[in-house]
Structures are given as structure tokens and as C-alpha cells.
Amino acid sequence: MNIGSYIKKLRTERGYSQEELGALLGVQRAAVQKWECGTVKNLKRETIKKLSEIFSVPPSSFIDDDYTSYDNIITFPKMNRIPLVGTIACGTPVLASENLDGEVTVPEDINADFALRCKGDSMIDARIYNGDIVYIRQQPTVENGEIAAVLIDDEATLKRVYISDNTITLVACNSKYQPFVYTGKQLNDIRILGKAVGFTSTLI
To answer: I need a surface site. Which of 113, 121, 170, 188 has the fewest CB within 10 A?
Structure first.
């Protein structure tokens, strides 16, 4: 599959129009159309970087195998390994050995302490799908509207968090799910584990 067809495949799978993808990249719709038609084969380095971030695929996916211009060689980022947290044992710290399910690699410029594997479809409007690996920076609170890993009765969930007075509201990024509202003594069973700072998609 050539680069143009690959971009079109990623775009349609995510539900973007050419105009919407162009807006995310800071280019006109005509530019996206030229890429997909194969009129322009060798993308700018900044465009490759943005496409990689939008679709969560390696930058090398957008480089022709036979294109050898040194100006377009993409250097892969240095990677760190962080723990992948599985089921969280009752009452234990999140990074305790009994909670871990191996390790995953993450670019060193992403400040994350651990990762979770997303389950279900509650975050699909944030482009996070079942099986995706989400990188978490450990912190006890987040700004309203930010996506966070939250521990509820020893079960970790990923939701947008809204805090007001003595209430925490967890909102899914999927309209078919109703928000969960916790107040009073219910707050004793909830703990914010950290902020979601990135993810790796398993779709491609």
C-alpha cells in the first residue's frame, strides 16, 4: 500500500473528512487530496510528525522505502520502559509487583509513570479503543475535563474527570454511556491514579 492510500485508510477509519484532517494538520483540503492521489509523495518532516501523532502510528509509516533524501530521514525517539498495570490488588499501591502485567515502551519525551490497557468502548470519541495502551502520569488530581485513570473499588477506569465541591463526576467519551456521579461517603471509594498523557493504538 502506498503512502497516499495509507493516509486515506487511516483517515476514513477515524471518520475524518479531507477538510477535517487538513484542519488538524494546518493545511488545505487540496493538500490532503494530493497526498491521497499520489501527486505529492514525499511529505515534509513536520507533516509526518503530525500525522504520526494524530493516528498513533510510527513516523516511518509515511516515508517511501525508495526515498533516500537525508533531509527526510526520521530519527526514532529514544524509548523508556514503564510498567503495565493489570488488575489492581485490594489496598496495594498501584505500582506494587502484584499489580503489574509486564512492561511497555514509551517515547522518552512522554512523561509517564505507568500504562493501562483500555477495556471496552467508553472512550472511543477520544480515539481510544478497546485494547489500546494508555500512558499515565501519576498524580492525585487533574484539571476539570482532563482524561484520567481513576480507581473505583480496586478497579481502574479511564474517564474525563470533573470535580465540584464534594462531588466527582466521571464522564465517558461515548454518548451511549451516562456520567457517573459520586458524592459524600462514595468519595472514599474513589482515587485518581493519574493523568492520561498519551496512548498507542492497536488498530493498525
So the answer is: 188
Tell me if the pTM is above 0.70.
Answer: no
For domain 3-68, the CATH architecture is Orthogonal Bundle (1.10)
Closest CA to 143 of 89, 197, 106: 197
Verify whether residue 122 is a known catalytic residue. Answer: yes
Name the DSSP letter for residue 95: T
HEC profile of 156-175: EEEEEEEEECCEEEEECCCC
Set of cell numbers at residue 4: 497516499
Residue type present at position 29: R
Domain definitions of the chain by residue range: 3-68, 82-200
Q: Does domain 82-200 have CATH number 2.10.109.10?
A: yes
- Taking the CB of residue 188, how many other CB atoms lie within 10 A of it? 8
Q: Which of 8, 50, 56, 159 is catalytic?
A: 159
The type of residue at 10 is L
pLDDT tens digits along 64-95: 654 444 445 455 667 888 999 886 665 667 77
